[in-house]
TrEMBL record:
EC identifiers of the protein: 2.5.1.n9
Catalytic reaction annotation: sn-glycerol 1-phosphate + all-trans-heptaprenyl diphosphate = 3-heptaprenyl-sn-glycero-1-phosphate + diphosphate
Self-association state and partner proteins as the record states: Homodimer.
GO MF entries: heptaprenylglyceryl phosphate synthase activity; magnesium ion binding
Cofactor: Mg(2+)
Gene symbol of the encoding locus: pcrB
GO BP terms, alphabetized: glycerophospholipid biosynthetic process
Keywords attached to this entry: Lipid biosynthesis, Lipid metabolism, Magnesium, Metal-binding, Phospholipid biosynthesis, Phospholipid metabolism, Transferase
Species per Swiss-Prot/TrEMBL record: Paenibacillus nanensis
Keyword set includes tRNA-binding: no
Task of the protein: Prenyltransferase that catalyzes in vivo the transfer of the heptaprenyl moiety of heptaprenyl pyrophosphate (HepPP; 35 carbon atoms) to the C3 hydroxyl of sn-glycerol-1-phosphate (G1P), producing heptaprenylglyceryl phosphate (HepGP). This reaction is an ether-bond-formation step in the biosynthesis of archaea-type G1P-based membrane lipids found in Bacillales.
Protein name: Heptaprenylglyceryl phosphate synthase
Top-level taxon: Bacteria
Length: 232
């Protein structure tokens, strides 16, 4: 794996600027020992709600990065920025279209040292991101490995993100993805709602991302941190 500003992250909480989160819950998440807070969402992300959440997380020492998924939500002041490209769609706007629009507008302001492209491979057809981007979520192992080689060897993307948002994924596929990755950091996200699932995903992914469960069962979300740390 190539060394990057996010390479040491094993566990990340993903917070959605469009969802309510109390100060107590945010405090517990930021002080949990997680490696980073990632801010991003598939809908309802605005400049205002992104700035608001960033400034609340900024009170803590934990790394805080933004996934730039809309132009509206491009906010300065984060430790790092991820720019997602969806690899398993044939709609070019989600591979390079929106990104080029963003660079036309904000290209001169991008902090390149702290900015990384994420090659998303979305494998849950029910996820909002899959619907919005028209992703072909039913890749078999051979197709997945071809996508990984495209991202890792040809495109040399620093991050490959296996995304099952809303559902726990197929760990056999994740294992195959990991075997095929040479340079990139492999992120996994989707349906991690217990320490046990966190551990399973962390066996293969370099970094696991915990999202939805934060909003429905905070204690379960917090338990995923220790599960990953103690498995190291
Ligand atoms: C979403 O991959 C993350 O982009 C996390 O998924 O919300 O299902 O935990 P969950």
């Amino acid at each position: 794996m190539v060394d990057n500003w996010f390479s040491a992250w094993r566990h990340v909480f993903k917070l959605d600027p469009d969802k309510e989160l109390s100060d107590e819950a945010l405090d517990a998440l930021c002080m949990s020992g997680t490696d980073a807070i990632l801010i991003g969402g598939s809908s309802g992300v605005t400049f205002e709600n992104t700035v608001d959440l960033m400034s609340r997380v900024r009170r803590y020492e934990v790394d805080c990065a933004l996934e730039v998924s809309t132009l509206d939500g491009a906010v300065p002041g984060f430790d790092g920025y991820f720019v997602p490209l969806v690899l398993n769609t044939d709609k070019a706007e989600w591979i390079i279209g929106k990104q080029i629009e963003g660079l036309r507008e904000y290209g001169t302001f991008v902090p390149w040292e702290e900015t990384a492209a994420q090659g998303y491979i979305i494998l849950n057809e029910d996820a909002t991101a899959a619907k919005v981007t028209g992703a072909n979520a039913s890749l078999n192992e051979e197709e997945l490995v071809a996508h990984i080689r495209m991202a890792d060897r040809l495109m040399r993307l620093p991050v490959i993100y296996i995304e099952y948002s809303g559902r726990f994924g197929d760990m056999k596929l994740l294992k195959s993805a990991r075997k095929a990755v040479q340079h990139a950091s492999l992120f996994y996200g989707g349906g991690i709602d217990s320490g046990e699932k966190a551990k399973l995903a962390a066996e293969h992914a370099h970094t696991i991302v915990v999202g939805n469960i934060i909003y429905s069962d905070l204690e379960a979300a917090l338990s995923t941190v220790q599960a990953v740390k103690s498995a190291q």
